[in-house]
Amino acid sequence: MHDNRRTRLVLGVLLIIAIALITLDFKDGGASPARRLGANIFGPVERAAHDVTDPVASVFDSITGGTSTQGTIASLQRQNAELRAELSAAQLNKAASKQLAQLLQLDAGGYKIVAANVIAADGGFSDTVTLDVGSDDGIKPDETVLNGSGFVGLVTQVSSSTSTVLLASDASAVVGVELAGSGEIGAVSGTGKSLSGSALLRLSLFDANAVLHPGQQVVTYASVGDKPQVPGVPVGTIVSVNSSAGGLTQTAMVRPAVSFTSLGVVGVVVQVPRHNPRIAILPQPVPTVTVTATPGPSGTVSPSSSATPSSSPTASASGGP
Amino acid sequence: MVPEVRALISVVVVAFTVVLQLTVVDRIAFPGGAGPNLVLLVVAALALAGGPMAGVLTGFLAGLALDVAPPGSHFVGQNALVFCLVGYACGLLAEETSDSEQGHTALFEIVVTAAGAVLGEALLALLGVMLSDPRVTWPAIRHVLPVAVAYDVVLCPFVLYAVASALRLGGAPREARRPGLSPSQARTPVPSTSQGAIRQLPGGSAPRLRLSDRDKGTASIGGLRGPGSIRPTARREPQLKLGRPGQRTPVSVGAAFAPAAFGAGAARVKFGGRRREGVFGGSTGLGISRFGSSNMGRSLLGGSVFSRRPSSPVSRQAVFGRPAALGMSSPFRRRRDLAGGGLAGSAPRFSRGGSRARLSALTASLRRSAPKSPGRGWLRGVSSRSGSPRGNTLGGASMRRRAFGGRRTGRSLAGRGSAGRSLSGRGFARRGFSGRGLSVSRTPRLRMPRPKTGRKWRTGGYR
Questions:
Q1: pLDDT over 70 for what percent of chain A?
Q2: Cβ atoms of A181 and A217 closer than 8 Å
Q3: Domain count, chain B
Q4: Are B411 and B272 in the same domain?
Q5: CATH code of the domain containing B129
Q6: Is the pLDDT of residue B41 over 80?
Q7: Is B23–A49 a contact, with Cβ atoms under 8 angstroms apart?
Q8: Contact flag B137-A171 (C-beta cutoff 8 Å)
């Protein structure tokens, strides 16, 4: 009737507007002015919301972060102890400070890093997060984001107070990498949500004859002008090799060095060291347990600090009660 | 509630949900690899409460907000497109069904919201595929979609409850305001009016019944929209006419009601009260009738929320006698208008209150004049007419109708078309209410004294 017709009219108009927006954004490659406007509007709100919701999200992360990976009973028990201890606010702060400390070690390696908090994430099919730093903090698009464990992703969009990061696990993310020992080059792409369980990355080597075996470290490869990624940042460890006879490339699955579902404090590389630091920041090839142990990724930066993941939980457990 | 207040609340709720979704929900690593889409659920709930127009607008705005908010990496407009459609679908479903129903049951609302969520998630995935989003591949959909939908469905009731309470925040002032808008009717508190209605019904004076109905209607209207002030006047007209229908004789009014109203008015009234409970249960399904008497069965969003919808006030009255919620479709309603207004003989009167009512009455009369789709309406009108005599003679049929007719009587008096209702009444009877209806009708007085109806009225969510 009357109202139905009007409603239908409004519906039609809005649908056309939506399609027009999609078209414009499609043409602009995902960087339409609308998004900039939205970032300016929602960025500050999300920053404010993060201050309120961070403890909640952290607790949830610590609870749910480990469910996707398989572990032994012993490791789960240890995890429980850690989680119990982590529940206190002091421990949460401590975890954040530890991540910061690891970033500072990277800093010592020559990187100039802007520390940032992950304040929002995108659900659905994409793996993107928002950082609470923006162009006001010197962030520019195509800069590398990493944390104490390794490579996190690339900055794709920047507003004045926030920036959007495309995680390496996103299905549309491609990162140039090389094998830590042999120097074979290839590309790592995210698998997005197409794999159930833990998110692995897919490595394809350009050399079909290269030797791949599980356990090899994968680090980022140098790119022109250090954009989009800086060299030498650990990406992950090869867990399985897909030998496809007759394929032009070799592919392998890589377990990422960072836990993308529990990102807390990250760093944006705004300046690269003059010397190649790849060996210095290569993490100890620790088993995956460490990834799931704490809400924040707890990989180690240097061999000497590899003991920290195990020691800190015990310390925190004793301090908790 | 004043529309502006309602819109404001909706905007606040949507904005809050968008921020909550991005900063908390999406950051949580849910088992299964996907999480719920709270914004989608909120859009569905708001559409359910506000109708298609509200659904379209809130859906578009919520989707757009989700699109442009920072971490978004899909194309701007994707969510807006999908949420817009979901809001429209849910609003339409709610409106069409509520037209015949006094309010939705909680189960109905949950089901609709869940359906909206499923539709939304599926459309989002489909749109992603159409736009050749590299992330939205078939394996990804297979992993994400079921999990996301499951979380959505699980969270449905909670989101509905939250939205309902948020809307009720604005509902309180509305009650206070109403008196000013419609002095005479509005002042009487809802419960009292309903009780009054009941008492009067026993008396058997047709006009009073109508009045009471009107009062209820206004109450519901007040709940719905600001323009309540206009509607009361519209309703008044019905009163006058109501007198007529009663005089008209059963046939003119609608077979089902007329006999009951005149023959055993009091008894029917009582039935109405009862009926209501039964109706609630019946609306959701036969097995769910227990919900009817408890709050659980009532609409989460509250009758008031629905009643705010422009068309609902009228429908609201009709609600009691109406058939299953899901069974009602828009064409159905229109047909009823046709049949009731045109065929039953209560001319424009049957239409809803307010300017809207007049419009619909106009359209209905137009339709009537036009040969358009007379078939169903005619059939119904005829059937109802023919049915009434039959019912009288047979007794059983009439009884059935009476059982349902408590409400209907009021309605018919109010001048609304009764054909559709009578049909619904039959439907109920078929479902097995007939026996109950009979017994009830026979012992009308016993039931009358019960304060139950009043209480129910209150619990019905008119606040």
A1: 63
A2: yes
A3: 2
A4: yes
A5: 1.10.1760.20
A6: yes
A7: yes
A8: yes
Tokens for A208?
A: 């079909």
Q: Determine how many CB atoms are found less than 10 A away from the CB of residue A16.
A: 11
- Tokens 């002030």 — which residue? B229
Alpha-helical runs (H) found in A149-288: 278-281
Q: What would the pLDDT profile of B325-342 be if each residue is shown by its tens digit?
A: 333 333 333 333 333 333
Q: Are residues B380 and B424 in the same domain?
A: yes
User: Mind telling me how many Å the CA of B299 is from chain A's nearest CA?
Assistant: 24
Residue B453 CA neighbour count, 13 Å, CB half: 28
Query: What single string gives the DSSP state of each residue in A63-90?
Result: HHTTTTS---HHHHHHHHHHHHHHTSHH
Q: Do B68 and A34 touch (CB under 8 A)?
A: yes
Tell me whether A60 touches chain B (CB under 8 Å): yes
Q: Which of B128, B156, B176 is the last residue of a domain?
A: B176
- Contact status of A112 with chain B (Cβ, < 8 Å): no
**How confident is the model at residue B60, as a pLDDT?**
93
How many Cβ atoms sit within 10 Å of the Cβ of residue B303? 28
The answer to whether the beta carbons of residues B409 and B246 sit under 8 Å apart is no
Q: Name beta bridge partners: A238.
A: A254
Interface A–B counts its CB contacts (< 8 A) at 230
**Pair (B149, B278) in one structural domain:** no
The answer to whether residue B8 scores a pLDDT higher than 50 is yes
Angle value at C-alpha B68, between B114 and B35, nearest 5 degrees: 35
Nearest Cα neighbor of B96 from B388, B309, B341, B382 is B309
From CA B111, how far away is CA B116, in angstroms rounded? 8
Of the candidates B328, B223, A306, the residue with the CA atom closest to the CA atom of residue B337: B328
Q: Residue A253 pairs with which residues in a beta bridge?
A: A202, A240
Confidence bin at B57 (pLDDT 50/70/90): very high
Tokens of B239: 């009163």
pLDDT confidence of B406, banded at 50, 70, 90?
Answer: very low
Mark which of B126, B152, B176 sits at the end of a domain.
Answer: B176
Residue B245 and residue B169 share a domain: no
Q: Pick from B24, B37, B330: which is nearest to A53 by CB?
A: B24
Distance from C-alpha of A122 to C-alpha of A191, rounded to nearest angstrom: 16
CA-nearest residue of chain A to B134? A172
**What is residue A88's predicted lDDT score, i.e. its pLDDT?**
52
CB contacts under 8 A, B 169-198 vs A, are none
* pLDDT per residue as tens digits for the range A102-157: 666 555 556 678 888 888 888 778 888 999 888 888 888 888 888 878 889 999 88
Q: Which residues of B touch A68 (CB under 8 A)?
A: 29, 31, 33
Instruction: Determine if the pTM surpasses 0.90.
Output: no
Which of B19, B86, B135 has the highest number of chain A CBs within 10 A, making it the mutation to test binding with A? B135
Rounded to an integer, the average pLDDT of B60-68 is: 91
Asked whether the beta carbons of residue A129 and residue B71 sit closer than 8 angstroms, the reply is yes
| Same domain as B215, residue B118 | no
Question: Domains of chain A: which residue ranges?
Answer: 1-30, 33-319
Expressed as residue numbers, the domain containing B145 is 3-176
